[in-house]
């Protein structure tokens, strides 16, 4: 697993969101983008993270940031997650893991002594030219907005 680092050019992804709309990195040209990868919709940590970003969404917009979430969940599961939590930003349904692999956030994980493959909770802040200006790999789910804005 080779995760992208600060200064790398973000991969020019294209994927479907929760409603089947095509979302591309090029849609965000000229804007800053907070691209957060999370393991699974509607789990406690992922819900806390998404709701923290939701609660601070206007602050992101005021600073010129857009927000986009990504997981390997189906579009239906993403839509349910978005509706249940009133999330104001799109969620990519990356079931084929193309965006996940392009950013290098899929790999071995450990939980309660058991090893498995999964998404590493990681956030990339991408500038208006598509360059990664920050990578947050130690995400504090309940205070993630402050980690990004600092």
Explained architecture:
There is one protein chain. By secondary structure, the chain is an alpha/beta fold. The chain has a single domain (14-149), classed as Glutaredoxin (3-Layer(aba) Sandwich), CATH 3.40.30.10. Helix content is 26%, strand content 29%. The strands form three sheets. The protein has a five-stranded mixed beta sheet.
> Briefly, what CATH class?
Alpha Beta
Count of all domains: 1
Order of helices and strands: EEEHHEHEHEEEEH
Structural class: alpha/beta
Instruction: Give unreliable regions as ranges.
Output: none
Largest sheet: 5 strands, mixed
CATH 2nd-level architecture: 3-Layer(aba) Sandwich
Question: Rounded to an integer, what's the Rg over CA atoms?
Answer: 14 Å
Helix content: 25-40%
> Looking across the biggest beta sheet, what order are the strands in?
5-4-3-8-9
Overall pLDDT level: 94
- CATH topology, by name, is Glutaredoxin
- Give the CA-based shape: globular
Q: DSSP helix count?
A: 5
List the helices and strands and how they pair.
Blueprint: E1 14-16, E2 22-24, E3 32-37, H1 44-55, H2 57-62, E4 65-71, H3 75-84, E5 91-93, H4 98-102, E6 106-111, E7 114-119, E8 122-126, E9 132-136, H5 144-149
Parallel strand pairs: 3-4, 4-5
Antiparallel strand pairs: 1-2, 3-8, 6-7, 8-9
């Amino acid at each position: 697993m080779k995760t992208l680092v600060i200064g790398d050019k973000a991969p020019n992804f294209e994927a479907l969101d929760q409603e089947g709309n095509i979302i591309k990195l090029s849609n965000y040209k000229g804007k800053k983008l907070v691209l957060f990868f999370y393991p699974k919709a509607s789990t406690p940590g992922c819900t806390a993270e998404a709701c923290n970003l939701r609660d601070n969404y206007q602050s992101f917009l005021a600073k010129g940031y857009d927000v986009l979430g990504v997981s390997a969940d189906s579009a239906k599961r993403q839509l349910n997650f978005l509706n249940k939590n009133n999330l104001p930003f799109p969620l990519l349904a990356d079931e084929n893991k193309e965006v996940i692999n392009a950013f290098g956030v899929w790999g071995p994980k450990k939980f309660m002594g058991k090893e498995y493959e999964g998404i590493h909770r990681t956030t990339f802040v991408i500038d208006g030219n598509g360059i990664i200006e920050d990578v947050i790999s130690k995400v504090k789910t309940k205070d993630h907005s402050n980690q990004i804005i600092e």
